[in-house]
Amino acid sequence: MTKPTLLILAAGIGSRYGSLKQLDKLGPGGETIIDYSVFDAKRAGFGKVVFVIRQSMEQEFQETLMKKLSAHIAVDYVLQEIEKVPEGIKVHPERVKPWGTGHAILMAKDVVKEPFAVINADDFYGADAFHVLCDHLKIASEGNYAMVGYQLENTLSENGTVSRGICESDDNLELQSITERTKIAGNGSTINYVDDEGIAHILDPKTIVSMNCWGFTPGFFSHLQTSFDDFIQHNAQTLKGEFYIPVVVNDLIKSNQAIVKVLQSSAKWFGVTYREDREYAVQQLQQLTSQGVYPADLWSGIAD
What is the pTM of this model? Predict the structure, then answer.
């Protein structure tokens, strides 16, 4: 049986964090969040890791992370650059922002040929998330996707607003729609998001949200390509327009071309959106290590 691949989106600029947070050493032994994700993925049964990075970080990434991880699991990487668009498309010359998560996944279409999971490099998803995703992907038929859902109240930052994909599912835990909401923050005992008109709306703290923890089959790449070709025709001259995964997922659900299972997991999430989130992440990783969830010398605790 072919083992699933883990695709890690690590090409983000990290403007709110103020540095290359993908490579920030947060663990007690100097580990990055990526180290823990790959560690958990290997233990869960994933057979390969593919990174999506930018050319500007290629050398540092190879020297600090790729060399270390390749001793424990098969590793590859692809580059996401603004100019990687269909031939004949002219991009705005002042564009610096990547084209988004959907475009990032698309960059891996030539190196990922098996069922695969997608995660963000700067999010800690918890070991159980990788187990439930791997179990799903091992038996998934084409077009049978998955998403690990998290409760909204457990995904906020005390240091600023966040964006989350608000999910609606049916009684069979099949995703019906996902809506991107921005400017979400806790406000006393409530959680609000602010719409484009500046109006605040209350959200249920128990609402299930997407943290970009997905499971796809290889046919997803062709859907992505078709959707991105249409997107870029209308957005090539924008400075901030982004091509998001949920846009494609919603279209596939509505056209009955895919089923997306919302997987239940006991995993706890945390991330580093803002620089001020760093201290909490360090504390959480130290606590997990002290509890014996992870060995103090992370990579010594797993058989190759």
Answer: 0.94
**CA distance to 26, 66, 68, 224, 302, per residue, from 216 (Å):** 29, 24, 27, 11, 26
- Here the tokens at position 239 are 């400075």
Token output for 65:
């992370």
| Contacts (Cβ under 8 Å, ≥6 apart) of 92 | 236, 237, 238, 239
| Residue among 64, 185, 53 at smallest CA distance from 107 | 53
pLDDT band at 15 (very low <50, low <70, confident <90, very high): low
Q: What is the pLDDT of residues 202-249, one digit of tens each?
A: 999 999 999 999 999 999 999 999 999 999 999 999 999 999 999 999
- One-letter identity of residue 198: G
Place of tokens 């605040």: 200
Token duo for residue 293: 């969830």
Which residues are CB-contacts of 150 (< 8 A; sequence separation ≥ 6)?
208, 209, 211, 213, 267, 269
Distances (CA, A) of 124 to 109, 129, 270: 25, 10, 5
Model confidence at 13: pLDDT above 70: no
In the chain, what percentage of residues exceed pLDDT 70? 96
Class of residue 79 by CB neighbours under 10 A (exposed 0-12, middle 13-18, buried 19+)? middle
